[in-house]
Fold these 2 entries.
Entry 1:
Amino acid sequence: MEELVSLTAVTRTVRLPDDAELHILKGIDLAVHAGDHTAIIGRSGGGKSTLLNLIGLLDLPSTGEIRFLGEPVNHLSNNARARLRGESVGFVFQQFNLLPGRSALDNVITPLLYAKGSGFWRRRELAMEMLDRVGLSARADVLPNMLSGGEQQRVAIARALVRKPRLILADEPTGALDVETGQTVMALLDTVATESGSALITITHDSNVAALARACYRLEAGVLTAVDVPLRPGTPGAETSASDEAVGASAGAGA
Amino acid sequence: MTGLVSTIVEAWQELRINKTRILLALIGVALSVAALTTVVGMGNLVREGYKASSERNGGRSATLNLGVYGPTMPDPEKLSQAYRGIQERYGIKYSTNVSQAQHGFQFPNGVQDVQLHVVDPGYGVIHRIEVDHGSWFADSDEQRFAPALVVSETFYNAAGRPNLTTDPVVTLAGAQKTTAVIIGVVPDQYPYPGMPPSAYMLTGAAEKAGVTAGAYGMSSQFEIWVQDAQAESLQAAITADLQQQFPGMEAQANRGDYASHGDPFAMVQLAVGGIAGLVMLLGAVGMLNISMVTVRYRVREIGIRRSFGATSQRVFVGVMMESVVATAVAGVVGVMLAVAVVKNPWIESKIAPGLTEFPPFPLEAAMLGLGAAILVGALAGAIPALVAVRVKVIDAIRF
Ligand SMILES: Nc1ncnc2c1ncn2[C@@H]1O[C@H](COP(=O)(O)OP(=O)(O)OP(=O)(O)O)[C@@H](O)[C@H]1O
Ligand SMILES: [Mg+2]
């Protein structure tokens, strides 16, 4: 299966104001393939967001190599990374990060403002389609502050997916939602990502969320280790592996 | 193409969202553009008015006044011959004798003294005389049996405003009882209540009608109109030429037009323009202030946009464009305001009383206003745009 991102011996070190060095990530190896659904769990401050920023081309590693679609990211200019990010990555944030004062539709349109050609010219239509996929086409003209948390996150999911990115990065997408809403939203994100054949990496504290993934890692003190996908409470293990195969097949066909 | 359009679309969206804040800053910009444009526009109008009235007095650029002075008056016959010779030798196209006289005229309400300007047809060109009704003298008018008159508005009123197509006549008081024909009407030069009527009469006609020129002891003058570039060399040549013909006397060829004294409004306009520039600067600082606040408030938003693929140029141009688009709109409003002020008929007549026909609003004033507005927008946008570019995405979207 096609490799989207690969990290080899990646570290990220920051210099603190008192001149001490903080090693946030210590030698990460990770490969993300098309159609993967991966969960990353770990304690707060473990470096999960830092890792996600590296994968999403928002940041560069201190040492080690990251390849995005086979290209070493260190060789890319800022602009090339920005364009690649716009084309290939969709972000979903814990705090939704919708643009205040713009309607749901305008928020979903935003990434298309940075697209070329038909993506830009058909932005309204594409955004409307995407809102429809998350079940919010009736609320296209509503401002974010008039939407519930769950609805806001659905708008954010529509925005992340509107340019059909190969990779969706979700940093605690259910962190600001109650358990039930969180589950609905996560199920939606999982479904929509599967439908578009996008790889999905989710950072989460919630084992229910992690249970939706087909691979799971724990990031602890800057070290990444693979763990078993936690079983969804009340779900037989056989069902998880069955859906795993089905998704693998569809993603393979799509790639 | 898509890049440019999408940048404008984005800037327009931003303007819509931040409209109240930006609107307040823009009022300042619009007002200072209006002030700047008004000053320049009015300055232009004042200058036009001044030019028109000084052209009526001193002739247009470049007019030379010839004269020969000495212990005794030069022989008039010899003088006019010398003038004619100069006209031929130097290829002078327009020239005129100018002298003043006073003569009584028979009006419906009695005899009134009229100030007569005794001139040649060339006077109309040199002094850019514009008639309200009828026409200025033609060369053939000198041959008329009844002298032709171009009269002032006051004269025309005193004569009962007769229809010029009927060749109305007026009678000169005196033994000869000459009748003269009114062929044209010009506006009063200095309209004030109770001013005496005045009229222009051709030199030849005045002689025949027995009008004695050179009243008030003023000798007649001879004016020629030459090209600006040649004024200086002709001045020297003609002075020498005349001097040679009238030994023992002093020959002169002086410039009498307004342009020879320099531009009397340059200083005033510079001062007022400087003040307007300062006002503009204040507007720019206001705009900068608002843009800075807006950018700080939007750091997070810029971070979000960058996470969705906005390049740093795009962020820079976007923030800049917002400011430029906004100030350009304010500039248009300001210029419209200035046009409304300057083209107001009451204001026009107050600041340029010398003009009968007002020039259109000067294009360069409008362009200056608009250009200044866009410049302010670019300057006020550049600093926050630099700030916006330096925003680190990972810091902006961290909470
Ligand atoms: N630019 C930076 N400067 C200094 N410290 C940083 C910087 N970026 C991250 N850190 C520190 O590195 C550690 C890891 O941060 P990170 O945000 O990746 O954690 P996380 O696993 O996402 O935590 P959480 O689950 O709370 O979101 C934290 O202790 C954080 O304070
Ligand atoms: Mg985090």
Entry 2:
Amino acid sequence: MELDNKLRILADAAKYDASCASSGSRRKRVEGGFGNTEGIGICHSYTPDGRCVSLLKLLLTNYCIYDCSYCVNRISSDTPRARFTPEEVVNLTIEFYKRNYIEGLFLSSGIIQNADYTMEQMISVARTLRQEHLFGGYIHLKAVPGASNELLLEAGTWADRLSANIELAVDSELRELAPAKSHLQIEDAMSKIGFGIADAADRSNARAQSPKFAPAGQSTQMIVGATSASDSVVLAKASELYKKQKLRRVYYSAFSPIPHADPALPIIRPPMIREHRLYQADWLLRFYGFKVEELTTPESPDLPLDQDPKLAWALRHRDFFPVDVNKASRAALLRIPGIGVRNVKRILQIRRYHALKLDDLAKLKISIAKTKYFITTSGDNPAALQIDSKRLPKKFEPQPRQMALFEARSGEL
Amino acid sequence: MKQVLIEDFPAWRTQARELIQAGVEPSQVHFVDGKSGQPLLFDEPAQDQPKPEATKVPAEFLKLASVAAQYRDPDRWDLLYSVLHRLTNGEPYLLKIDVDSDIRRLRLMEKAIRRDIHKMHAFVRFRKIELEGDAEYIAWHRPDHYIVRAATPFFARRFGNMRWAILTPDESAYWDGAELIFGPGAPRDAAPDDDGLEDLWRTYYASIFNPARINLRAMRAEMPVRHWATLPEAQIISNLTREAGFRVQTMIKDQAPSALPWVPQQATLQALREAAIRCEGCELHKCATQVVFGAGPEGARVVLVGEQPGDEEDLAGSPFVGPAGRLLSRALEEAEVDRSALYVTNAVKHFKFIERGKRRIHAKPGGIEISACRPWLEAELEAVKPELVVCLGATAAQSLMGRDFRVTRDRGQFQPHRWAKQIMATIHPSALLRMPEPDRREQEYRLFVHDLALIRPYMQT
Ligand code: SF4
Ligand code: SF4
């Protein structure tokens, strides 16, 4: 098969992995080599679906011996198949990189023969890039659960990031839909990688020039909407993984229920808004000091779709408001709907010298229409008087909008 | 008013330091931007002044000023001077006040420069040429601001072992493998106009894009159209978007709706029943009250399959509890078949109807819905493993025996089937309810009871 055709099939098959970030790693160019990573990832292009192109995202092959029912590559699917040789992937990566098209490589694969063989194939791509070509760009490798400890540890020495996908939030549901997988096995792979990361950190404390191990940490992906697991279950699993496995990111991927062909072309629209709300909630957990239990209630274990989770929390906790932007603590400021982490920082700085009024906030590009009900400032703000009004939630009912608005994967709340 | 010609930031810094120390008000001086090519209206001879003492300004200001100096706006020098003047005349904390209008302008400039540099790092596209066996990588890029010197060290760090050049209209940067050299600007045709690899890159670009999620606004916001001319992949954007709708359409046509993704494999009836609650295999779940799954013992020897739930079934959540169900019960009784030993279900699990005022009128399910829902029926049969399946009416019969099965022609005939030893079809009891003539109805009812009586032998071992 021609390279062009393989690329078409194996790039297409790779696009269901939501993760595309190339950030979080610092790797200096090796003497005589090319490529580096400087911490922030760069989006080298954007596709007409508004998504960032940062890494060359490929599957080594989309042949797979498993039959995970949520996946296009499962053995029972009649999708067209192809397989790259490791050299082909190495060359594509190098040539694309040298023309400044990409930040590096994201390599995943269907399972061929067994977990170890598959992992070894992916490792050989990374090893060749690093050792033979002195490539210093970003490499994200998929960790195959069930692969041996040695292989996972070797993968970490070449890759900037490793990710083992947890797939579904509930173990029993995973075992039902993906008979070959279990949380135990996936989290075992995560702990092995986590051990490699911690070990490298210890060594680098002792010695400045010690070998790196997955410096951009590990991430995972959870499919939402394929089973009935509620958002509170999904978020609880995510925060458990953040804590226990010290993951950098959990990606949420809306399930597109299509049996045989391209599952991203839904007949039933995948729950995009839900995916977006989960990213917002994830942000609240990691950067805003929210706890999982605060984001949903026992009566409604799913995040509301028509409101962002922070606004929903605020409407349920009106007694917390209004918050005085000129006096409140950082933690309290972070709870105000419409004010994000960056603006909280700016408010804390400015207010030492200047008492903030509503129009000052507008200058910081804060949405006054949303925020005004929840704050008091040094000027007049009659809207704050409505905080206890029964009609307040009505004011936030969404106008009909374009899908586009829900596409963003993250953002300031 | 005093006029000062400024070529670059160090020049402004020297001039501004002297002017501040001389106590010159911002309104008394105008900086003329050397890059924008405006001539001085009149020249003022530089006065010889004693070497000034250092003026203290926050380090943050120098950083901010050196960035704002790259902004393509001739007024930037004046703005910087007036901020410097305020900083040194009673407003030492000015920089902290982002809401001040001068500071806000500077911050916006700073942001624009950061973004422009970032976009240059992102959008430079090298084209490879071979020169006497050596590869050289050449790009032409058009930044918005004067950022070549600030943006290109990045490429030296990254592509240190390559020889490359980045040409821009204002200024160009060359890397010979050891040193970064800046030269004059260059027109676009000074760079090579092709690179064989760009076809593969476009293939990649086209393949990772998802036509079902088209969002041009987001794409243009991040990848401004003014940069498209130098991005090889941008050539195919209009084609991709034009074809996107078509690609989505054909994919949808290719993929008949199906309940399959919701149907757990090899599940018990109870697990199936629970999973069916979430089914969105076709449109019908949207208007119906609830899914109406089959009912009866898991070990039933005979399964009856109807068409779809009706109004009462839809509300009750159980099959055959409305008028047709009562008629069925009566007929089974007369045929001496114990209904409670049967498993009773439908070919389609959600009620399809048309609203007429307050009433919901039964609508016949179409082929799409029948085949979408078939996985549920098959899963039920797989779980129950009956000896006999009896199809009540054409919908059930066609679902299990194919399109050209005719109830009128083939009723009462047994044949082997994938999901049961035998399968047989008769009419649907609701057909009897619709018959206006009592005589005809009575006659058909007898035939119906007769067909049902054929079940009896299958009820015992
Ligand atoms: S193992 Fe991976 S590639 Fe294979 S079917 Fe499962 S999810 Fe898909
Ligand atoms: S009719 Fe069947 S396929 Fe359609 S939604 Fe209902 S249960 Fe699912």
